[in-house]
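Running low. Invent one:
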Amino acid sequence: MDFHFATAFEQVADAVPNRTALICDGEAKTWAEYDDRAARFATVLADHGLGPGSKVGIYLHNSNEYQEAQYGVFKIRGCPINVNYRYKADELVYLLDNADAEAVVFQAAYAMRIWEIRERLPKVKLFVQVDDGTESLLKGAVDYERALRNAAPQARVERSPDDVYMLYTGGTTGMPKGVMYPGGQFCQYFVAMGAQGRELPPPERVGELGEWVHTVAQPPVSLVACPLMHGTGCWLGSFLPHLMGGTSVTTSRLGLDPDLLWGLVEQHRVTDMVIVGDAFAKPLLAALDAAARRGNPYDVTSLRQIMSSGVMWSQETKRGLLEHGDFVLADVMGSTEGGMGSSVTTRESTAQTAKFTLNEGVKVFTEDGREVRSGSGEIGMVATSGFVPLGYYKDPEKSAATFREIDGVRYSFPGDFATVEADGTITLLGRGSVCINTGGEKVFPEEVEEAVKRHADILDCLVVGVPDERFGERIVALASYRTEAGGCAEADLIEFTKAHLSGYKVPRQVLFVDTVRRAPNGKADYKWAKATALELA
């Protein structure tokens, strides 16, 4: 096995140099241009002393430059480090120091934050600023475009499949953790995923990839609706289409603008869209419905597939989307620590919310290490042995807790709980770290949230537990109304959930907020929800 992201992308660039690789805000780059700019950035990094194993923080919004910089880091056999652009000073310092970053590529909009923390980052040798028209060049930083113009493309080198790829995840609790994968195996994993989706045999060696991409009929044009700084956006919206010789479409605009996204689908004849659950799907569906009511529906005939991972995607929302197009709705159950299952919905076949078919090597275990039997009703932790990370970077204790052996087999336990149905599928319950213990019963917030969001007046919801003298914790829902909704009363909403939940799972209180806060990738901000509930409940 000789795969490597940089070598694979070079194979694609040589095979289809004039095909479009990147589109952002109307600016397109061919594969030849993509490869050339990444090679020039590799020279910039090497000229500043970076090489194999070097870590480079990428502190950018979605953009062509994000993917060029990442590719350039791969070229020098380095490791790109995803940086959450919402982080404040102390969080940034922790992440970049923990990752041993030797360079940081940053958006001009964050120049003042870099200025604020740069003296606290003694390991960083190079700061590269990407101009976005908001700030002048930070003193001591290198301008990205000027640096590329002045650099010669770095010659290609031999690379090892053992080079480590790493993605930082914050999870639901705790400090960010770098999840390490063997880079060659990780690259090959996405090649195989793309091949499986097209019912093609995958290439066995990286040298065969250039020829193989010519066998991919209608290469994907993938719209990344969520941030590239998170695994769902980067892996499904960039790595996957690029390893198939396709195109990655992004917008640098922050915040979810459904009409903008549907406009990009029309403009670029997008075939695949990458989202994160109902947090994206519901506003996207509302925009489709509104356009249809206006008598000016969006042209979505090019769109073949919508992929989601990481957050619940409800059956009702999927049905609504399918009224507008004959899509494949692929709901991927996974996390940075490993893929575990999938649920595919089409017009011909529908899947229940949170019900997934397991990937090979995935099992559900009780806390004492017993495998949960199908149809038993027992709750267990989902574990995968299919492709297990090397561990967390510089954290052997958490690595030992998450990646552990059972009966001689090494598994990853990302923290998701589930039951196993009689047919072998699983019903995902949620993360144990946010589980609510009320009167001795375990309640997973996602199940309650789904019941609340079924109400026609509710746009979004998060559920937390707050201290209660009688039950230990009581269930509190924070909900927001749909813009067009008049708004239901708290008592009516609580009564509505009783038709979908056991009595002990029903919210004891509903707090209505203007906006339910989520991260840019759509994941729940339970820290905010808990603090708000404690303040208002």
In short: The chain has a mean pLDDT of 93. The first helix runs from residue 5 to 15. The chain is about 30% helix and 25% strand. Residues 145 and 179 are 31 Å apart (CA to CA).
